[in-house]
Design goal:
With 189 residues, the chain is an alpha/beta fold. It has one domain: 3-Layer(aba) Sandwich (Rossmann fold), CATH 3.40.50.1000. The longest helix is centred in the middle third of the chain and has 16 residues.
């Protein structure tokens, strides 16, 4: 069994541009490939976990999410990096597309995406982490009983300054970006 790092996509791996409603809007953040490559070399399972409610809201088709994930894999490969699995939630209770408009267990901060990963991959959950740029990701980590690392990319700075002071759940660690979060994880081992 190997530990996993569950990484949020938008704002953590790629630039936070709101809904990524076109392939041209996917822009990898500097250092993201290097960070994931370091996890790969240190025998971590890398799992991308992402809410993609734009599907339920009718902003873009589910096929675009898959196309963006393929582009993400190609971009990461430039740094000899890869993700072991990508899971996303296309649902939202207020969606306009009936098939995706629902309450579900896979929408973060619910832990359905982690549970799915655990059922499909040989994960040492006791040594695993969550990294993301939103309080939602820290709540996701908390709900799964995992350490949650907040990055200051994407929504991170604003969430840390304006939202986090009023919430009970806090990140285990705050990192400038994904690369620094990964380096912190390696120091914990």
């Amino acid at each position: 069994m190997r530990p996993a790092v569950f990484i949020d996509r938008d704002g953590t791996i790629n630039e936070q541009l709101g809904y990524i409603n076109h392939i041209s809007r996917f822009i990898l953040l500097p250092g993201a490939g290097k960070a994931i490559s370091i996890l790969n070399k240190n025998n971590y399972i890398v799992v991308v976990t992402s809410n993609q409610s734009g599907v339920a809201r009718g902003y873009f088709p589910i096929e675009l999410v898959e196309e963006i994930h393929e582009l993400m894999k190609k971009e990461l490969a430039r740094d000899n990096a890869y993700v072991d699995r990508t899971y996303f939630c296309p649902h939202h209770p207020d969606g306009v597309l009936r098939e995706y408009s629902k309450e579900c267990n896979c929408r973060k901060p619910n832990i359905g995406l982690i549970e799915k990963a655990r059922s499909e991959l040989d994960i040492d959950i006791e040594r695993s982490y969550v990294i993301g740029d939103r309080l939602l990701d820290i709540e996701f980590a908390h709900n799964a009983n995992l350490p949650g690392i907040m990055v200051l990319t994407g929504y991170g700075e604003g969430e840390l300054e304006y939202i986090m002071p009023h919430r009970m759940i806090k990140p285990t660690f705050v990192a400038e970006d994904l690369l620094r979060a990964v380096k912190w994880i390696l120091k914990q081992e």
